[in-house]
Amino acid sequence: MGDTGGVSGAESEGSVRGTDGTGHRRRGNTRKRIQDVALELFAEQGYEKTSLREIAERLDVTKAALYYHFKTKEDILVSLFEDLTRPIDELIEWAGNRPRTLDTKREVLRRYSDALSGAAPLFRFMQENQATVRELSVGETFKSRMIRMMDIIKDPDAPLPDQVRCISALFTMHAGMFVLREVEGDPEEKRKAVLEVAIDLVTQAHGSTGEDRPS
Amino acid sequence: MGDTGGVSGAESEGSVRGTDGTGHRRRGNTRKRIQDVALELFAEQGYEKTSLREIAERLDVTKAALYYHFKTKEDILVSLFEDLTRPIDELIEWAGNRPRTLDTKREVLRRYSDALSGAAPLFRFMQENQATVRELSVGETFKSRMIRMMDIIKDPDAPLPDQVRCISALFTMHAGMFVLREVEGDPEEKRKAVLEVAIDLVTQAHGSTGEDRPS
Amino acid sequence: MGDTGGVSGAESEGSVRGTDGTGHRRRGNTRKRIQDVALELFAEQGYEKTSLREIAERLDVTKAALYYHFKTKEDILVSLFEDLTRPIDELIEWAGNRPRTLDTKREVLRRYSDALSGAAPLFRFMQENQATVRELSVGETFKSRMIRMMDIIKDPDAPLPDQVRCISALFTMHAGMFVLREVEGDPEEKRKAVLEVAIDLVTQAHGSTGEDRPS
Amino acid sequence: MGDTGGVSGAESEGSVRGTDGTGHRRRGNTRKRIQDVALELFAEQGYEKTSLREIAERLDVTKAALYYHFKTKEDILVSLFEDLTRPIDELIEWAGNRPRTLDTKREVLRRYSDALSGAAPLFRFMQENQATVRELSVGETFKSRMIRMMDIIKDPDAPLPDQVRCISALFTMHAGMFVLREVEGDPEEKRKAVLEVAIDLVTQAHGSTGEDRPS
DNA sequence: AATGAATGAGGATTCATTCAT
DNA sequence: GATGAATGAATCCTCATTCAT
């Protein structure tokens, strides 16, 4: 499992022995281990195909143990979502307090790209399990986030093709994450290429409306 | 569900000749009715969440009747896929026999747009159930179709951003189908806007390589 | 399949084209073909594991066609049983009208051996599906036949070991049919060896009671 | 069912400590209770005809409870087989380390008789469900056990009739178990009669080869 | 002499969840 | 902080059988 899949950034899975900062017998990492394994399996096989039995078996605990840490299966997903999408919430908040200039939008895309690659497996999961996720609570949450993102970069009064360009910019970034796994090349370079195209799209969209032109 | 969801174009669901109110002689079309209902439910709720019981109930037949017409649940999906993706197969074949000029690519996108909107629910389904579909036989088939499409419009030696533009063009068309349901506007106009953006993307990708320039 | 499996001795399965003796377009062999295939599958896989679908598929007819010829699945088995065990009925009748001398018993065993190898697959089936067959009508019939056979060769007042010898003689002949498939050697020779042992057993049983001694 | 059917010798079925009449706390022994009931039903009705529903109902638990204790239906049978055929494995091992004299063979038969009657219902089951068992994993296991037993008492270079005698000895013991239920008499006496006949058969087989003669 | 379409009953199996310990 | 044992509801699927044509 890659580190990007880790739920709490820095230390994940690996460091099992040792202290958790307080100097005590480190326990309490089970919750995170559950999240890690769940995310990995959800992303790999989908939400429905991943059973709690499977998660428990991988962790070598019983299903009942999962229920000590999470109220339901859905709750595991919710917790992942909350932990991992905070950067995006912050981005949305940050953008809310700024004028909707082209430069802002470009900066938004740059930051979004970072946020996305910091939680790639989760976003891949959301993308590949839309039908399932739609009837889960995170579905609503995710959708409203996306709508907020669109509000930020898309002008509802612009000509339709320009609106499409903005939507496309966002989706290109999402799709980029897993479609480009099929393409050769250094991941970081690919990310930059995707970002470049997304920025281009938004720039073009802006250009035709003629608000503030890029160089 | 619009008529585009119907499996064999013209008459769908509605026209049930024979005694329908009295007994239940609705001869011969049961197979198609199953496909129609299945597609509708698969697209709406996802593949896993749609049970054969539900399909059967909607049609007012028993589950066993479904098994008379299809060998397995997956088989229903396969049959839908085969029936509905024929136009895309033909498109791929057509494009295979042509030089890969910009004009060809644009024509491919135009035809692809038609093909897509002729089987919108199925494509929406494939998009929203990728995790599930990946381990189904249609998953492989679909993936190989997509790769063929990419071979047609994408130059593997072009700079990365241009390759991304091409991929983005394709995904914009896919995503356009269901994301734009959130946007106001006439469906046909939206389709045209999406197509315009996709063609633009491919054109730009082509331009920077400098093969054959558009006007 | 094999000729011993054929329901009516001489011509089975193979001769499809041609006339059925009257000079007409041979029809009416379907019933027999069903019996042949059913016996083959019953013997190979067991009664429960053999579905009517499978039988029908092998014959390239529909399940419904089977119901034209036989009232139920069980009925197919019953018909096989009736057709194939006639020789044994006749043997029992023949033996019923004779004194129970050692010579009679030996002759019974000889004839029994013939009868058995004339319907080997059916007997193999009966042996290997006793649990199933027990609750079928043929179960009762078969059991009563066996009891009659025992009455013929076994003396209820003989010492227990001698009674066992007689039972063993019969079972040796049954088991001989399929256990010896594991042993190398010419089938006809094996049959003779089995018969020899069976006769020996009955002879010994008789000897100790001292009725009429063999040479 | 007799105690010989019990899976773990001593206390079976009956002794259910805990509140049995009131609630349903009959802790810990559920696994064994499942085995007991399954064996009883398998032997009585056959493997296929015995549904997990039936087993569960008899135990007054849900089907799902069975799946807590056993992975599949087949697994229940496998567990019975493993638990109950250990004595025979030991016998085979014991015999493997000894010269193949007549005395050894006789001792083998004696011990085999004991082993058989210690797991009579299972052996009856194996005998009566051969067709079914053949495609189950225990089928292979059982067959290889039988072949090992034959290796021990049968000389592959002896004349065919003598080989048949040895096979017959083994089958007589198997068949003896359930065919003799039809014959009057004390079970223990019947067992001894069967053993005597089996030993006789092996002795005769040995005698004609002339290795080491009995008294 | 046979088919096409369907049914009702039941099969094994899996799942998320609960709760006393 | 976790387990062992169990449940209830649902899943896909298979089967023997029927009947109008």
UniProtKB/TrEMBL annotation, chains A, B, C, D:
Residues 51-70 bind DNA. Residues 1-30 are annotated as: Disordered. Keywords: DNA-binding. Residues 28-88 form the HTH tetR-type domain. Residues 9-19 have a biased composition (Low complexity). GO terms for molecular function: DNA binding. It holds the Pfam family TetR_N. InterPro entries: DNA-bd_HTH_TetR-type_CS, Homeodomain-like_sf, HTH-type_Tx_Regulator, HTH_TetR. This is TetR family transcriptional regulator. The lineage of its organism: Bacteria, Bacillati, Actinomycetota, Actinomycetes, Kitasatosporales.
